[in-house]
Amino acid sequence: MPSERRPKTAKAKQQPQQTPPPSKGAPNWQVLTLGVVLSILSALFYSHWSGLWDLSAPSPQSTPSQKSAPFMQDEVFYVVNIPGKGKGAIAARDIKQGELILREKPLFVVPRNINASPPKFIYGELQKLSPEGQQAFLNLSYVNFPKGLDPEGHPEEVALAMFQTNAVSAGENVGLFPRMARINHGCSSAFNVVYNWRDWEEQLVVHALKDIPKGKELLTTYTNTKRPRDERRAFLSQQYGFLCTCDVCSLPSDLSRASDTRLTEISRLYTDFAAWGRDGIDGAQAIEFIRKIWEIEDAEGYWSERGQLAADAAWVAASHSDATATQAWARRAREWFSYEIGADTPQVMEMNMFVARPESHKAWGTKRRQNVGGPDRSRGE
Ligand SMILES: [Zn+2]
C-alpha cells in the first residue's frame, strides 16, 4: 500500500485564488468529480512500464534543460520500491531547476461531468484500451474501495477506485497518467517537481522546481500545503488514505511549529494582498505584501507558484503605470514560470512582452499612477 502517494487533484496549486488579477492560462488544479471527489493518491504499483503512452515525445521546445541536450526521458528518473511508501521515483542523475522531467499523454481522459454510472463509464473506457494500456491501468493501486464489496466480484468498482485514486486534472477533463502517478507527494519545501497540463499539446509536463541531486526522490504535491501540519495530514489522510511523513511533516515539533507559522502567514498575506483588487489597499502596499510572501517563502523553502505571484505583482505595477516595476516583476515572473511550467509557455511569452513594452499590459493605467516598487527593495526597483 503506497502510503505517501499523492493526492493529485485538489492540488494545492490551485493557483492564486488569492490573486486579484485573473490568472490567465494558469493551470487548473481543481478537483474534479465524477459523482465523487477525484482525488488522487498516487499509488502506483507499477512495475513495468512499457512506455507506450508517454510519449512519442515530440521534440520539446526549449525548456531550460533542453537547450543543450536532447531530452532523454528515461534517464531522468527510475522507479523503485520505497519501504513504507510503495513505489517512488528517484532521480537517475543530477537534475537542474527548471528541467523537464516528464511529458506524458493520458491513458485516457473523461469529462468532469458524465451522464452515466461512473463505475460503468470508467470500466468502459478501460475496455477500449490496448492490452498494454489495460495492464498499465490495472497496475495502479487504489484507496477508498466501498466497504463490504469484494473487489474480485466488482471489477467496475475497482476500475472507478483506481481512477479516483490516480486521475489528475487535464484541462477540461480528468486524465490518467501512469508514469507521473509514480511521483509521490511531499508538502511545502519537500516537493521538488511540479506537473502541469498543456492544452495545446494535450499532454502533461513535469518540471523540476529545484535542483535535485542524483538519488533523491522526486516529490510533487496535489493539495494546498500552505497550511499547518495537522491540517495537511488530516486532509491527506482523509482524502488519500495515508499519513504524510514527508520531510516537512517529519520535522521535530519546534521546527514544525516554525514551519506552520510561516505557512499560515503566507496564506494570510495572500488574503491581505487580495484586498488590492477591491481597492482596499494601494499598489505599494500590495507589492509590499508580495515581497513579504517571497521572503517568508525563502525562509520556508516553498518555491511553488512564484511565477504567478510575480506576474500578479507585474499586474499591480502595470495598473498603477509603474513601468520600471512592471518590467522588473515581469522578468521575475518569466524566470519562475520557466522553472515551474517551462520556458515554452504562453505565460513566459507574455512576460517577455511586458518586459519589452510594459505599457502593453492590459491592466496598464487602470488605477491611479503610483510608484509601487519592484522585487528588490535595496535597488529601488
Ligand atoms: Zn507532508
Outline:
With 381 residues, the chain is α+β, with helices and mostly antiparallel strands. The chain has helices at residues 73-76, 118-128, 131-138, 155-166, 229-240, 253-274, 283-300, 306-319, 323-340, 346-356; strands at 77-82, 86-91, 100-104, 109-111, 168-170, 173-175, 184-185, 193-198, 203-208, 219-220.
Name the bound molecules: zinc ion
Structural class: alpha+beta
Strand order of the largest sheet: 3-9-8
Specify the overall morphology.
globular
Report Rg. 21 Å
Strand content: 5-15%
CATH architecture of the largest domain: Beta Complex
First and last CA, distance: 51 Å
Features:
alpha+beta; Beta-clip-like; 381 residues; three-stranded antiparallel β-sheet; SET domain-containing protein; binds zinc ion; SET_domain_protein; 2 domains; SET_dom; 10 helices
Structural features, described:
This protein has 381 residues and is α+β, with helices and mostly antiparallel strands. The chain folds into two domains: 64-240, SET domain (Beta-clip-like, Beta Complex), CATH 2.170.270.10; 253-379, no CATH class. The chain contains ten helices and ten strands. The chain has helices spanning 73-76, 118-128, 131-138, 155-166, 229-240, 253-274, 283-300, 306-319, 323-340, 346-356, and strands at 77-82, 86-91, 100-104, 109-111, 168-170, 173-175, 184-185, 193-198, 203-208, 219-220. The strands form four sheets. Strands 3-9-8 form a three-stranded antiparallel beta sheet, with no helix packed on it. β5 and β6 form a beta hairpin. The longest helix is centred in the last third of the chain and has 22 residues, at 253-274. The protein is globular and about 70 Å long. 51% of the residues are buried. Zinc ion binds at residues 187, 232, 244, 246, 248-249. InterPro entries: SET_dom, SET_dom_sf, SET_domain_protein.
